[in-house]
Amino acid sequence: MSFDYRDDDDDYRDDDYDREDDTFKRDNGYEEREPETGEDAGPGDKKDFDDDFFKDEDFEFTDYSGEDAEDTGYRSRKIREKRKRRKLIYTSFAILLIIVLVAAGIVFGYRWVKNRFFSTAEIAEEERISVPESLELDQDLNIVLAGSGEDLLEPEVNSIIFTSYYSAGNETRSLCLPVKTLMDVPGIGAELIGRSVEIGGMDLLGLTLENGLGMDMQIDGYIMMDVAGIVNKLGGIELQVDQAYVINNYTDSTTFNLEPGPNLLDGSQVLNILKYFSGIERDIPLKDIKMQKKVMDAIIDRIAGEDEESLTGNLNQVRDLIDSDLSLEELLKLVSTFAGIPPEKNMAYTLEASSTELEGEGIVYLPDVAGLSDLFSKEEDVREEVVEAERTVDVVILNGVGTPGIAAELSDTLGEQVFESGKKKFSILEVGNADNFNYASTQIIVYSSGESAVMNSANELKEILGAGDITTGEDEIASSDIVIILGADYNPGTAAETEPLEVSGIIDVAVLNGVGVAGIAKSTSEELEEHFNADRKIIEIVKVWDADNYNYTQTEIIIYSDEAGMEAFAQQIKDMMGAGVIKKSDNNIYNEDITVIIGSDYTSQ
Question: Options 2.70.70.10, 3.30.70.2390, 3.40.50.150, 3.30.70.100; which CATH number does 392-486 get?
């Protein structure tokens, strides 16, 4: 039994489908037409209809406005995706803007709230310095002040000053030390004191000075300053100097000038000045290191300001640029007190030292601490004795006999008299004629007889003159401490004469060039040998070399031996050279008896 499924199928297709198709056409209001003629399609076209079930017209959307159109159309999906992307961009931008505004609001709002509601209490407790009831130091104090570069943790120290404050007399005595002074550093051995700070900080420097200065004193504190930082923070300082200087700029190898009078300086200039006067320059006399004290005083004065308010404000600005073991209250008192000390009670000295050369270090200094314990003693009578002993006395010299030139000659002689420290004994204020030339005896009139130093000087003048009567002139007004009126009893040659004394053995002499003139030390040593060894050998030239610098204006004849007659022999050297001053020292590093340092007073003859 077989079935002809095609006939059945044809019947289905011809009958059922046509009916359904006609129904579909009627329901949708159109008739199927020929694509090009517009006529009704005939039965022969059914195959074409079947093959072209999906036609181009089926994809022509004419008017869809229902809700389903958005959910089902391809175009609608594209629109939705585009809208989503646009919405995402707008949302991201808005979120970013909100974050920026919130961050700014947090920062500025917090500052406003903090300053508005909490700033007063926090500054009072943490930022501002509590001012003590009194800004005066009420106790003696030994302190070390140092100046350095900006790095206080690994400092390059360019100034070291030991200062003692005496509360009873409201005075300070300061000792300026070359940073290249060689001392025994505890735990290290022989080392430069400036380098001790790099090794162990200011505490180690304090211990070094306690042991090395021989004063049996305890150092109570230290202050180390970032000098350039402090000066710049405060807008500069004013430094008063008495003479012109050309200062090296160590950052770029240039120079700048200090002029006599006030100089307005910035931090870099101040740092270079301290370094220039730190002892590293061969042509700077050791005594000029006292310039460091002037600079430190100027910085302290600038911090102190004009009143208590400016002091606290200035110290608050620079306290992060200061390393000190003193409290802020102690710093306030120290700055306020030091700034108010009168000049005559603010005394500065330079450490006595001799220079030598060390391989790899260049010039270094060997300290002479003899006499420091007396100079810095807290015993009032001892301190006064030391200070009075080196008082320069003002003198007026008048010619009372009419002999031409005798007053001027005496002035030259007295001008050469110096203390062991090199300080002048006499300052000649005037040389002239007396009211008449009939003075039979020399008069030494003292106008400051209440001072023991002046009376001691009057007695010394009488010995130098070999004549004279000492009187007082308390009821008269005079601009000087002593007035000398030369009389007929004065012999002009007496002051220059030296009692010849014999010395035993051969005298060892070192000759140093203190002016920089090539060959001057060698030629002078030959002249000395020729003069003193003419009959027999008296001197031995043990060293011919350069001095520590070339700025010696006076020839120095330094005696190291206490042997009898040595001072008289030094005077003979002075007479032979026709220049110089005689000094004594215990710091004998070359083991000679006498050192002659040639100055410009000898070369200018």
Answer: 3.30.70.2390
Which residue type, as a one-letter code, is found at position 547? Answer: A
Q: pLDDT > 70: what percent of the chain?
A: 74
The encoded tokens of residue 443 equal 């008069």
Residue 165: predicted pLDDT: 92
State pLDDT tens for residues 516-527.
888 899 999 999
What gap in Å lies between CA 333 and CA 279, rounded to an integer?
A: 31
Cα 410 to Cα 428: distance, rounded to the nearest angstrom: 10
Q: Specify the residue for token string 């009194």.
A: 134
Q: Which residues have C-beta within 8 Å of that of residue 391, sequence separation ≥ 6?
A: 451, 453, 454, 457
Burial of 547 by CB count in 10 Å (0-12 exposed, 13-18 middle, 19+ buried)?
buried
Rounded CA gap, 219 and 109, in Å?
Answer: 50
Which architecture does CATH list for 141-384?
A: 3-Layer(aba) Sandwich (3.40)
pLDDT single digits (tens) 457-478 = 888 898 888 888 888 875 555 6
Give the DSSP H/E element, type plus range, for residue 99. Answer: helix 74-113
* pLDDT of 227 above 90: yes
Rounded to the nearest 10 degrees, the angle between the axes of helix 308-318 and helix 328-339 is 120
Token pair in block for residue 171:
């005075």
Dihedral sign from CA coordinates of 571, 577, 583, 588 = negative
Number of helices (H), then strands (E), belonging to the chain: the values are 19, 24
Give me the CATH code for the 507-603 domain, please: 3.30.70.2390
Asked if residue 596 has pLDDT above 90, the reply is yes
Query: pLDDT confidence of 239, banded at 50, 70, 90?
Result: very high
Three state DSSP letters for 467-496: CCEEEECCCCCCCCCEEEEECCCCCCCCCC
What pLDDT sits at residue 90? 73
Greatest mean pLDDT among 222-226, 564-568, 590-594 = 222-226
Q: Give the β-pairing of 261-265 and 237-241.
A: antiparallel
Q: Where are the domains of the chain?
A: 5-60, 141-384, 392-486, 507-603
141-384 and 392-486 agree in CATH topology: no
Give alpha helix (H) positions in 322-421: 328-339, 372-375, 380-389, 406-415
Residue 590, helix vs strand vs coil = coil
